[in-house]
Amino acid sequence: MRRQKQLLSFFVFFVFSLLSDATAASSVDACDPRSLPDRLTLRPDQLTVLISGYSERRLLLLHSLAAGYASLPSVAAVLILWGNPSTPSHVLSPLSSSSSKVTVVRDPSPSLNARFLPRAAIRTRAVAVCDDDVEVDPRSLAWAFAVWRSHEHSLVGFFARSHDLDLARRTWIYTIHPDRHSIVLTKFMILKTDYLHRYSCWTRLAEARGLVDRQRNCEDILMNFVVAMAMAAEGREGPVTVLVEGRRVRDWGDPRNSGNSNSSSSTDGGDGDGVKEQERETEITRVGLSSRGDHRKRRGDCIREFHRMLRVMPLRYSYGKVVEGLGEQGLCLKGGKLVFCDRD
Predict the structure, then answer these.
(1) Active-site residue 45, yes or no?
(2) Residues 47 and 27 in one domain
(3) Which is deepest, 40, 92, 224, 296, by most CB within 10 Å?
(4) pLDDT of residue 266
């Protein structure tokens, strides 16, 4: 039994070594300035969408998302960063057929650090980093991009979380506050392309990137550290994180989707399409990192470890949300219902 445990430990160490070596090799190539376009030529009026993919269960949704983003005039290119080396090439070929703007990039390892690699195909000043289970409508994406253009040094997104200090246990925790946030999630975040280079090529982050590989989690938290540290070093006073309000932002992978509960089956009225929709949600959610029971604890541990490794806690709170328009809050009686007076 002891011998089996030793062999298992060696195997795990060997796999992580291969993973780290492959990621390191990719980072070295990506950090060579000769392999990247001149920063002065990057387009300011469009962005590049980087969608991370791994599970073949999400291919149909991924195909739809990529085609939708590629159809938008504000999107210069869509790069599908495929991190599952075992997927056959013919399975992925339909993804590129949806649009000439869509390209599948097969990364040599499943490292989450790969989603922040600088890439020669990125020809825009901004990138939208997103998951393969989040659907953002065109108007919300355009609004988020417009907000980013007025906050080019910040992280802009639709999903936010917070760090906090547990005084009883004297440790950092990962949580949700109703009135403040300090972390934008990679469910969908817009950031300037320069930050990809900082994340991947800054030697000070080597140990932290190693933690991301071991945990297979927390790359978004580390990017928030990177942006906060960069803004502090440059003396920038603006918000590190900017939360924007979307009109229709669908998170297929959220464990709270109603299709994952038994009680929801009574709401479809026996409709076969409703059952299929629930099955689709369940399959998509099942492969998500956030479905792990210890997900929040793992991310709290990452915050603590990043603080220890980098010897700084740069995360700072932002308050509120940027909305597209402000309307009157008065209520009027229309058609027998109380609604906002400025609503048709």
Answers:
(1) no
(2) yes
(3) 224
(4) 37
Count the helix, strand and coil residues of the chain and give each as a percent rounded to the nearest 5: 45, 20, 35
Tell me: do 231 and 269 sit in the same domain: no
Give the predicted TM-score (pTM) of the model.
0.81
* pLDDT of amino acid 292: 57
Q: Are residues 197 and 265 in the same domain?
A: no
Mean pLDDT, consecutive 10-residue stretches, the chain (344 aa), reads 53 46 59 87 97 95 96 97 94 88 94 96 97 95 97 97 94 95 98 97 97 97 98 94 93 76 41 49 52 82 98 96 80 83 71
> Are 216 and 289 a contacting pair, CB within 8 Å?
yes
97 shares its domain with 53? yes
- Stated length of the chain: 344
Range of the domain at 240: 2-253+292-310
176: CATH? 3.90.550.10
Q: How far apart are CA 18 and CA 111, in angstroms?
A: 11
Residues 305, 277 share a domain:
no
* Active-site choice (131, 133, 220, 251): 220
